[in-house]
Amino acid sequence: MGFATDEGLGSNARIGLIVLQTDQTMEHELSGLLRDEGVALYHARIPNDTEVTPETLRRMEQDLPTAAALLPGNFGFDAIGYGCTSGTTMIGEERVSEILRATHPTARTSNPLSACKAALAALRVRRIALITPYAPDVTREMQDNLQAAGIEINAVATFDQGDDFVVARITSAAIRDAILTIGARDDCDAVFVSCTSLRALPVIAETEAHLGKPVLSSNQVLGWHLARLAGLTADRPEAGQLFKTQLVAHS
Questions:
Q1: Which of 92, 102, 112, 139 is deepest in the core (most CB within 10 A)?
Q2: Rounded distance, CA 50 to CA 52, Å?
Q3: pLDDT level of residue 6 (50, 70, 90 thresholds)
Q4: Average pLDDT, stretch 59-84?
Q5: How far are the Cα atoms of 15, 72, 101, 154, 240 from residue 82, in angstroms, in the given order?
């Protein structure tokens, strides 16, 4: 039988995502954020330890090249993201990007930490409250990283949980309550909920409406950043104020 071919899925954008082996949330949330005509989203998994410590997070660096190579180079990715906020904090944003570009030299790269900084720049916000699920040592390193980038963190809250399986089972209602509690402070102009395992996306629009300020999450900022890097400009009202913005220069 004869047949015809076309350019395949992703005629408008092809986006790659490296997901932690233990992550239960990211694929679900980003598939909704990036669903659009002509957009294809592909995933690869990277081994990681269920226990979240600075040491276990840094160990992912050795497996990142293999995970990146599982995203086929001949797909022609427009943008690729490494989906771990705390892992990027420990490995380093530049090092993560360097590893991804070694396999995919033409793709633009992101991760939730870089995406958070780009999102805050797009929203013109410098003072935030930070919510994490991590133990204090991981939270402190992330706080130091953001502050070194000129972001003022005036309040920090953590669920103090070292088991990534448990983190994914923290309810969206509990996350909403944490956002409303810490976000009510006058000395923060936005709230950032860190960790791709946390199911924060369902409560972003609600908490923004209540607080009157932007609410960001790891999956939301990564989805937004990958979309903008790939040339996509669509709004997602359910994902809050961020998706009404575009990248600013050097983001």
A1: 112
A2: 6
A3: confident
A4: 97
A5: 11, 15, 12, 28, 22
